[in-house]
Amino acid sequence: MSSDPVILALDFDSPAQADQLVEALGSSATFYKVGMELYAASGMDYVRSLLARNKQVFLDLKFHDIGETVKRAVAQVAKTGVTFLTVHAVPQVVRAAAEGRGDSNLKLLAVTVLTSLTQNDIEDDGYTMSIRDLVALRAGNAVAAGADGIVASPLEARMIREIIGPDAYLVTPGVRSLGADTGDQKRVATPAEAIRDGASHLVIGRQVTRAKDPVAALAQIRQELAV
Length: 227
Ligand code: C5P
Description:
This protein is α/β, with parallel strands linked by helices. It contains ten helices and eight strands. The protein has a single domain (6-226), classed as Alpha-Beta Barrel (TIM Barrel). It has helices spanning 15-25, 36-52, 67-78, 91-101, 119-124, 131-144, 157-164, 191-196, 206-209, 214-226; strands at 6-9, 31-34, 56-63, 84-88, 107-111, 149-151, 169-172, 201-204. It has an eight-stranded parallel beta barrel with strand order 1-2-3-4-5-6-7-8, surrounded by five helices. α3 packs parallel to α4 (91-101) and α6 (131-144) runs parallel beside α7 (157-164). The chain is globular, with a radius of gyration of 17 Å. The mean pLDDT is 96. Cytidine-5'-monophosphate is lined by residues 9, 11, 35, 115, 173-174, 183, 185, 203-207.
């Protein structure tokens, strides 16, 4: 796992806006997450433009469909040079994704339970177990089905690291430095806490991307991680 542990989320509605940040950060950032919004605005063209600038890309599209469709879509992503792709942590979906990825360098990250869901939400959906137990069950099943790692809240990092072992990727959004604006995030940890608890990579969004001085905001996070 030699790549940069800090992944910046390009949550923008146009490639021009995303480019403004990428240009501002220059060589201080090497790894970017493209999610549904930017993907809907500019598709793989923008992903390719990042790869052409020697940036690593985390494509956060959370695939969940019948196996054949997932396999074929993942095969397309695998050809591009993207580093991480998310799929939902459903064994059938993960197995299909692993087939589609073949022997490429693409790494599959499984999403267990969306952090926006509450205990009531999953009970309405027929589950009787706790969210934490469901996260644990899905994480173990996903890795057994061929996922290379898990995306999880930093508050679940320690538990998941124990389940998936030392070598799997563990990518945590929901990270904020002490004193930084938490926005709509309710359950956060600091970057250093997340790494201490077993995260291999952090997804950082607004603390850097909406900062007046993104270069300084990213430098602060790197400094926190260095100590
Ligand atoms: O809150 P922030 O701007 O740092 O979020 C960065 C990214 O992390 C966003 O792209 C968001 O989709 C993702 N995220 C997440 N789960 C959370 C919070 C944020 O996947 N609980």
